[in-house]
Design brief:
The protein contains 17 helices and no strands. By secondary structure, it is mostly helical. It has one domain. The two termini are 43 Å apart.
Amino acid sequence: MASNGRPVGFGEALRYWARLGCISFGGPAGQIAIMHRDLVEDRRWISEERFLHALGYCMLLPGPEAQQLATYVGWLMHGTAGGIAAGTLFVLPSVLLLLALSWAYAAWGGIAPVAAIFRGLQPVVVALVAEALQRISKRALRTPLHVAIAVASFLAIRLAGVPFPVVVAAAAGAGLLLHRLRPDLLEPRASAAPAAGSATSTALRDDDPPAPHTLPSRRREAILLASFAALWFVPYLAIAKGLGGDSLQAVAYRFFTQAAFVTFGGAYAVLAYVTRVAVESLHWLSREQAMAGLALAETTPGPLVMVLQFVAFVAGWNHPGSLGRTGTAITTALATSWATFLPCFLFILVGAPYIERLRGNRQLDAALSCVTASVVGVILDLGLVFATAMAWPTADAGIDRVACTIVIAAFLGLSRLHMPVPAVLAAGGAIGLVRWLSGW
């Protein structure tokens, strides 16, 4: 295996994070599945227990959980520099790609060949989500109680429309309460044997002593908080001085910073909140344009919350200022992405040392295990949303049998044949382009 019991070099990790940023399709479910396969099973850079512990914490945070998980693992391995590198490279390709696609959408009103390629990617995205369900459920649903929590989470979201933060909070509360009343319900009757060699070939093992950078430090926290404050205020002051405090760029910077701190529940929850404000109150763009942005974000690498960059770009295009249409759109989009992702690094680099300190705390582990179980239900709901949109692209159309066949083939290729994710994605995109060219 890649780690072979040795520390992973920063350059080696940097190359992996750069690659991940280019292939991280499938929304949070697919991205978490890719990281789990790469980091836990193939490269064995981190143990199963540490991966799920980090995932449980990231699921409790506002913002894109997959990007924060990458930041957390990068920080675990190489400290602050590793966390910044992992989190930045996870989103940088999507920032650049979506910027180009947003311009093409705004300037041309539609890009049929690219849309055809993305349509071919959609079945592969559904297959990635299905594989994520298979992988994560095997490890997260350790007891009948965890299965019940997953089912209850799915039904709460799907049938009752319970907000995602409420589902996660309820799962964590259930874990704390059951740990106090019936801890036996949270313990599997028989632990699965570890994979051969995993105890010696995992770079970050469960029993490793804590590295110095993972210990809480008031001095380091003060430096980080001061740095983040400067990284937020300096761009804002530059925007306000150069374009005015009431400019679209300044208003968007403030608005999306607020959204980054209050919008739990992933991209769909964020988009619902942003749509109400940007469409109905501020009239930055139409509801149809917001929906188009979500479609583009779903079929590009990186977190789905990149849809906010699209919203900001179209807002700048629709309401050009002194910089003109393109200049206003690009600066508003980049300011929005900066404001959206900067708090994500703050949550991890400041909060993760305390979460690592509690690793092995049975009460916290009980809560996080229930949160992880609830995530299975959330992923199932997300998978159904994607599958429905893929199988029935329009309300009056019949089921897309070709797309459904691609889902099955992609799932088998990923789960049984262990085909590389980029190869499966490339095949899906090629099929989509062929379908468009042939009118199939």
